[in-house]
Design goal:
The protein is mainly alpha-helical. Helices cover 64% and strands 0% of the residues. The chain starts with a helix and ends in a 9-residue tail after the last helix.
Length: 192
């Protein structure tokens, strides 16, 4: 599946602009993580496009399954799964492991699982940061990470799995994600 095909599929299923921005953020972070593993860890065989597609489509059935979380990603897989590479489809289903019981296994799986929650935390930080996403600092995100009453929906335990499952220290993981999201701050609607 090309990026254009994936985006067209996404926008045919998701109408909420904020949700589309969440998908764009995850796409960009997944690309950054793919490059991190290729360049910093010398991992071969990583297809950046696959990682990006996984990020772009991971919640594509959200509007349909919003009130049935146990069907989230399963509905998408049944209806559109044949259009995707099996490893991309597995990453999408595994990011909802709490409901699907499909365990993350690969670096792509764990990257999506961890970055999904982090993008939400970063957006929440950008919304309260005086100068917005473009000037947001890793230290500010780290401060808010430790504030349990801030962005309660962002599962800190899930984000912190980056250390155990990806071997990336939390602060570095935040830095990778934040930098990626800052690269598309205009697309994400943060004009500063």
């Amino acid at each position: 599946m090309t990026r254009e095909e994936a985006f067209n599929l996404l926008t045919s299923l998701i109408r909420n602009p904020s949700l589309i921005k969440h998908h764009l953020a995850c796409e960009e972070v997944m690309k950054a993580l793919a490059n991190y593993f290729k360049e910093k860890r010398n991992v071969t065989g990583i297809d950046e496009n696959k990682w990006a597609i996984a990020g772009l489509l991971h919640d594509a059935d959200y509007d349909i399954t919003r009130f049935a979380p146990e069907k989230h990603t399963i509905f998408f897989a049944e209806k559109y799964g044949k259009m995707l590479d099996p490893d991309v489809l597995h990453a999408i289903k595994a990011h909802n492991v709490h409901n699907t019981k499909i365990e993350p296994k690969s670096q792509m799986d764990w990257s999506l699982y961890c970055c999904d929650e982090l993008t939400g935390l970063i957006i929440a930080c950008a919304m309260v940061y005086p100068r917005g996403l473009a000037y947001l600092s890793v230290d500010f995100v780290m401060e808010k990470f430790d504030e349990r009453n801030f962005a309660k929906g962002a599962d800190r335990k899930q984000i912190r799995m980056c250390e155990e499952k990806l071997g990336i220290p939390l602060k570095e993981f935040i830095e990778i994600a934040l930098s990626a999201m800052q690269n598309i701050s205009l697309q994400l609607g943060f004009f500063v």
